[in-house]
Amino acid sequence: xxYKAYIAKRLHAEGVSPDEIAGSIVVxxxxxMGDLALPCFKFAKILRNSPAVIAEELARAYPTDEVIEKAxxxxxxxxxxINRKGLAEEVLGRIREEGSNYGSSDMGGGKTVCIxxxxxxxxxxxxxxxxxxxxxxxxxYRIYRFLGYxxxxxxxxxxxxTQFGKLISAYKHWxxxxxxxxxxxxxxxxxxxxxxxxxxxxMQAEAREYFRLIESGDxxxxxxxxxxxxxxxxxxxxxxxxxxxxxxxxxxxxxxxDKMEPVIAELEEKGLLVESQGAKIxxxxxxxxxxCLILRSDGASLYATRDLAAAIYRKNTYDFVKCLxxxxxxxxxxxxxxxxxxxxxxxxWAKDLVHVAYGMVSLEEGxxxxxxxxxxxxxxxxxxxxxxxYAIISEKNPTLEDKASVAEKVGVGAVVxxxxxxxxxxxxxxxxxxxxxxxGETSVYVQYTCAxxxxxxxxxxxxGIVWEDAxxxxxxxxxxxxxxxxxxxxxxVKAAANAYEPSMVARFCVDTAQKFNKxxxxxxxxxAETEQTRAFRLRLTAATLTTLTxxxxxxxxxxxxxx
Length: 563
Ligand code: ARG
Fold this sequence. Notes:
This protein has about 575 residues and is of the alpha/beta class. Among the domains are: about 80 residues, 2-Layer Sandwich (Gyrase A, domain 2); about 90 residues, no CATH class; about 160 residues, Isoleucyl-tRNA Synthetase, Domain 1 (Orthogonal Bundle). The protein contains 20 helices and twelve strands. The strands form four sheets. Strands 5-4-9-10 form a four-stranded parallel sheet, sandwiched between helices. It has a three-stranded antiparallel sheet with strand order 1-3-2. Strand 6 and strand 7 form a beta hairpin. The longest helix is centred in the middle third of the chain and has 25 residues. The radius of gyration is 29 Å and the shape is globular. It starts with a helix and ends in an 8-residue tail after the last helix. The model has no long low-confidence stretch (mean pLDDT about 95). The chain binds arginine.
C-alpha cells in the first residue's frame, strides 16, 4: 500500500501537484505524533501563508477514512495517523485467503514473455560466470508467471562453432570412449583444453574439416557432436535440478542453421547488407556503433546472425510482448547491434527486446578451484557451500533430523541469494562465510526466521491453540511495522518485474525477516497477556511465514521447517 500516494490524491493544495506532495511526505522519527508527516514549510511561498496555518487548513480539509483515521497539524507539520487495525484486517485477511498466491496478480493477462537465460556452451565448463544468468533468469521466469504472464524459458545453447571440430580431432587423437563417458563434461573439457595447447598445424586443419563435416550432415561427426552435447546437458541438468531451474526450450544456436538464410535475404532486399573486405555487414556508423558482421568472407555466419534469426523465430513462434536476454554486460554492444539491425529491418517489436545485463561474480581470494586450470566450476561452489552449511548446522543443532536436506536448502540458497541480493549490474565477490552468516543479510538468516516462525506455530498447534480466525487487535509499533512490510509484497513483486531486478524481492525477504525478529523479541507471542493477543500474534506469525515462503520460492530458495 502506497500511503503517500493515497494521501496525496486526497489532499488539495492550490498549485502543488499530488506527485510533489507524495514526494514530500516523510516518516517521522517519532511516530507518537503520526505515522506519516507532510512538512509544509516549502509550500509557504506558493500558498502565501505561514507553514503552521497551511498545516492547519490542510488538516481541517483532509477527508479521513478507513485508511487514514486522523490528520492533525503541529508546528508546520501535517501529521497523519494510519488506521492500524484496518491495515491488519486487510493484510491478514488477504494473506489467509490467497495463501501461496499472496503477491501474485493477473497483471500479465496471459501475455507471453520470452526469457533467454543460462544459455550454456556445449562441451565447455559450466562455471561461476553462469551463476547470475541462471539464477536471475530463473527468478524472473517465476516472477513473471506469478504476475500472470506466460513465461517461455529458453536455453539458447552455444552449440555452434569451430570448437566442435577441434573437439572431434582431439577425441580422435587422445580420447577413449569409456573414459569420456565416465569423466563426462570434465573429460570433454580436458580434451578441448589439450587441443588448445598441443594441437599441431595438421590437427588444426583436421579440425576445420571435422567442423565442415558436422555442417554438411556427416553421420559420424554428427554422432560425436550429439554425444558431447548429451554429456554436457545431462551434467548441467543436475545443477539445474539443485537450483530449481527449468526451461521450455533448448533451441540453441545450431537450431538456427537453416533459419539464417531468409534473414540474410531480407537484409539484402531492404538494402541493409553492405560488402566490406569480402564480408557482409550492416553499417551502424550513423548510430555510433561498429558494423554488425553478418557473414564472414568465407561465407560463415556469426553469433549475431544467429541471434537475428532467433529473435525473428521467437516473435513468430511465441508472439512475445517482451523478450529478455539475461546476459553479462560484456555483451552490451552485441545486443545493442542486434536490436538496432532488427529495428532497421522495420521490426516494430525490436523495442520489446531487452538486454538484462548483470555484473561479474568472482570468488573471494583464497577460495581456489579444486580442479586444474583457473576455471571455477559452479558445481564445486555449490557443493562446497552445502558442505559448509552442513558443518554449521551440525554444530548449531546436533540433534536436527535430516541434516543433509536442510544443508542442501541452506547451501544452495546461500549461493543463489549471493547472486541475487545486490543490484544485478554490480560485480560481486562471493564469500562462503558471509553467505552463510546467520546474522547477516543472507538467505540463511531469512530461512532461520522461517524456521523460528514454524516452530512457534508448531508449539501453538501442539497446545491446541487455534489462531486462523483470530480477531484483529490494535497493532503495537512492532506489529504495525511488520504489517506494513507484508502489505508491500505484491507491489515489490511488480516492481521487481518492471525493473528486471529480483534483488528487490531478496531485499524484501531480509527486511521482513528483520521486522519479524524485532516483533518476535519485543512482543511475547506464546506468552502474550491475553488469549486474544496471543491468537492475533500467531496469525501475524503465520502470515509472515506465508509471505516469506512465497518470496523465497520466487527466488528458487527452499524453506526448511526446522534448522
Ligand atoms: N552462450 C552465450 C555465452 O555463454 C550466451 C548466449 C546468450 N543468449 C543469446 N541469445 N545470445 O556467452
